[in-house]
């Protein structure tokens, strides 16, 4: 189950899950993604909404840009689309992390109660990772790729004007200056804060339940994430010891004659085991960890979404009260009431959509991890397998060896 | 028996599928007991047993006949390469085991209360079956570790040319964190019990040591054994032998074979110690990896409580994670057998080195005797011819202060002649002693080398089988977990 980048274009067997967090390396281009998608169409599962998918995006090719003021990384964003809203069918632009942040905040503003897939985190100075470390850049690139594709998959978000601008405009800078300015955003935040101090009059049962779930889910995701990181740490320490263990057998073999063969045999088995453990660690780091991490961030996103929904309701309730003291007019209150209705519906719809993709993503990541572990044990057990041992048995006892033959137990693999 | 055989064959990966998940591998030690039991049973088509009947009571070694056409019983017997392959007279007579361990309290040498462990030695005549078909009740006696030590010291002194099998360690070494270093810990006591049984069986299967009477009494006479040992007077020899281990002397013409052997045993000691140390660390780390997965079990269980569709899959996956975490205990316990097998040979190197040192002492004494003799001969020659070749104070004084009388000289020569005669006798004796030592020692060294090759090769094979078994368990658990995740 270890796919190589080159294999993907000629892939004949396809995983039924189209979730991009399933750990397979990124396709080379939107073209191959289209091909993959067409193959996937044969499969039934979880194609909801994706049947209408007509925007395919890839994020790749990180490059660093050095200017007088700063150094930053840009990523190439390639889009292939058949959507009629787009003037052309192919676009290629370069974007930096800030641009993604801009897109996210625009989307949050326009669709406050939709659940937007999280962006990878901003660089944290105190963390061990260097900003321009290759692993960091690669992890971020994959996460950015997922981010854009989730939006492209989303029936509502994919139609966002800002999304289109992001994908198509050569220069994003002029567009970034348009739109609600800093001040208006400030005032909205102030209003939200004021409202949250007041508290909500009444909260629909379903949203209370949702809130509780979100809090629990956040806890669980953090726990699973922590446990997974600890497992990786333990694996690493185990591998380090194995690296010292193997050579000891070879050292012993040097002072032996007849025992040299079996000793070297065991020594090389231990070495193989250590290599496999390394691969196991890599797999965990590339598949399970990023997925869990994203869902930890998702939990925060959900909390923010719940908060925004509450604010919208709070704003309405505030104005509604003011209606009694005639400091505001009915029209405004009606608008706000509509807004509440819209927000709630949007959240409801997106909630089930999110639940489905969450289930698919995590399921796929766990399955992949379990499969990798099975693979690990199969490989290790194979190295300890007969061909080296058979030779040893032969020396130990002719009868043991002859029994081997007689029982025809030599497996064809060896 | 056939159970073990099938397990041995399960070296084949494909065959693994048919193996029961819990692969309890009988250690070398318990294999020996089975081996003895089987050699008692299969008297009909085993050619060796015919020789048993013919040679009962003799101490000759019985050679193993490797037949080309192999019956299944014969191949089973040949398969299990143990020290019992060459049946000794003692083993033909009786079965030996260390069946139990128990705690006692008593006063020690400084009259203080102490708690110590005693071990039950069981002996029963071979091929003993009572009327009902069950084995007859064994003779038993209790021994404590210090008595085993006394036995071994006695053997070391009495048979200096023999590589005497080592005792299991007195204190737990190469311990990884889960293992206890406490002497009274039940696991440690159990492993020591097995080690002591192994020790006795090694002795019982040794062509020379198995015939020793003190050893026989150790197995059969509970009281009065200590006195019997002391009566042999081995302590005196012990004192003189002790100096061989600590004295600094140089041998002029060391025997190359012994030197090589000494270096080999030093290398072996170093490398096995290192191996054991690192293995303990690896065991520790592996323990950590497995145990951490128990946290998955806990978290998945909690998480499943808040999920609807995913709940069942998560919950059952969590159980498998718990199973996985728990499985490491048995796995590592089995690996301790492997460590014990290596430890035995680590301790064996000490015995090998001790034989080499004893040989050095004999060689040294031989050289000294020869040197002494040649000196005396030269003295005699000088006296006879009147020339002074060897500087001596007497020679000087006689030169300065006048010669001795003819009478004096003749009496001196006579005394020297006697001394020379004694010296020649001593030299002859030493030579004979040395040759005997060398012959017997190399005999035993060759026997030991063969035994070592077989035992260690088996240990390595069984280690590999253990690893495969561990992998098999891992495959099962993670396949099950994968199924559960599929149901999420």
Give the topology.
The complex is a heterodimer of chains A (414) and B (488).
Chain A: H1 30-40, E1 55-66, E2 71-81, E3 90-96, H2 97-110, H3 134-153, H4 161-168, H5 173-177, H6 182-198, H7 205-254, H8 260-324, H9 330-383, H10 386-396, H11 398-406
Antiparallel strand pairs in A: 1-2, 2-3
Helix pairs in contact in A: 6-8, 7-8, 8-9, 10-11
Chain B: H1 2-9, H2 28-41, H3 47-55, H4 72-79, H5 89-93, E1 94-107, E2 113-125, E3 139-144, H6 145-158, H7 186-204, H8 213-220, H9 225-231, H10 234-246, H11 256-304, H12 311-385, H13 393-401, H14 406-486
Antiparallel strand pairs in B: 1-2, 2-3
Helix pairs in contact in B: 6-10, 11-12, 12-14
Write up this protein.
The complex is a heterodimer of chains A (414) and B (488). In chain A, helix 6 crosses helix 8, helix 7 runs antiparallel to helix 8 and helix 8 packs antiparallel against helix 9. In chain A, strand 1 and strand 2 form a beta hairpin. Chain A starts with 29 loop residues before the first helix and ends in an 8-residue tail after the last helix. Helix content of chain A is 64%, strand content 7%. Chain A has 11 helices and 3 strands. Chain A has a 3-stranded antiparallel beta sheet. By secondary structure, chain B is mainly alpha-helical. In chain B, helix 6 packs across helix 10 and helix 11 runs antiparallel to helix 12. The N terminus of chain B is likely disordered. The interface between A and B is large, with 68 and 66 residues. Chain A: Belongs to the sorting nexin family. Chain A: One of its GO terms (biological process) is liver development.
